[in-house]
Structures are given as C-alpha cells and as structure tokens.
Amino acid sequence: MNASCDHCGLDLVRESGFYLGSIYFNYGLTTIIALAVFFTLYLGYGITPDAQLWPLATFCVAFPLLFFRHARAFWLGMDVFFDKSQQ
Ligand SMILES: [Zn+2]
After folding, report:
1. Minimal CA–CA distance to 38: which of 25, 51, 26?
2. Taking ligand 1, which is a single-atom ion, which protein residues have CB atoms under 5 Å away?
3. For the CA atoms of 37, 41, 42, 43, what is the dihedral angle to 10 degrees?
4. pLDDT in tens, 30-41
5. Does residue 12 fall inside a structural domain?
6. Rounded to an integer, what distance in angstroms lies between the CA atom of residue 64 and that of residue 27?
7. For residue 4, how far is its CA from the centre of ligand 1 (angstroms)?
8. How far is ligand 1, taken at its centre, from the CA of residue 10, in Å?
9. Is the pLDDT of residue 87 over 90?
10. How many other C-beta atoms can be found within 10 angstroms of the C-beta atom of residue 44?
C-alpha cells in the first residue's frame, strides 16, 4: 500500500488498527450478499440449501479476498468524508 495518494497527497498510513473497521465492513457485506442470495434462491427458486452450500461457501471465501482493497478504500473514504479536517 502506498504511503500517500499520488494525486492529492492524502496520508494513507494511519494509526495502528485504523483499517480494522474495513474488515468488519467486508465481513458484513459478504454476509448480507450471501444471505440475500441464499434466501432468494431458496424461497424464490426452490434451490435446496444442500445445493447452495458449496457455491455460497466458495463465495464467502473468495469475495472478501477480492473485495479487500475496496473495503479499505471505502473505510478510508468514510473517514475522510466525516472528518473534514483532512480535506
Ligand atoms: Zn488522493
């Protein structure tokens, strides 16, 4: 990860534990998507939980890994948005 933004110079290295919140965000989003897909397929299309297990388990492992840096960017963006002293 870069120490600062190449475009605006925003400091990207924060205090220890700052990006921990992005993990919660990533986990929460993964859970919401998995539950929405599960109930849509189960109640809407009658696909059994057994048939959904491995595709959704794969999703629950792959999605957080692929979304990791986006969750961090979102978390940093939220911090900059709400803390006006950084702008
Ligand atoms: Zn920037």
Report:
1. 51
2. 5, 7-8, 10
3. 100
4. 999 999 999 999
5. no
6. 7
7. 8
8. 5
9. no
10. 8
Domain count, the chain: 1
Q: Could you tell me the distance, in angstroms and rounded to a whole number, from the CA of residue 85 to the centre of ligand 1? A: 15
Distance 84 CA to ligand 1 centre (A): 15
Q: Is residue 3 part of a domain?
A: no
Distance 1 CA to ligand 1 centre (A): 13
- Structural domain boundaries, residue 60: 20-80
Asked whether residue 56 is assigned to any structural domain, the reply reads yes
Euclidean distance between CA atoms 19 and 24, whole angstroms: 9
The answer to whether residue 6 is domain-embedded is no
> What average pLDDT does the chain have?
95
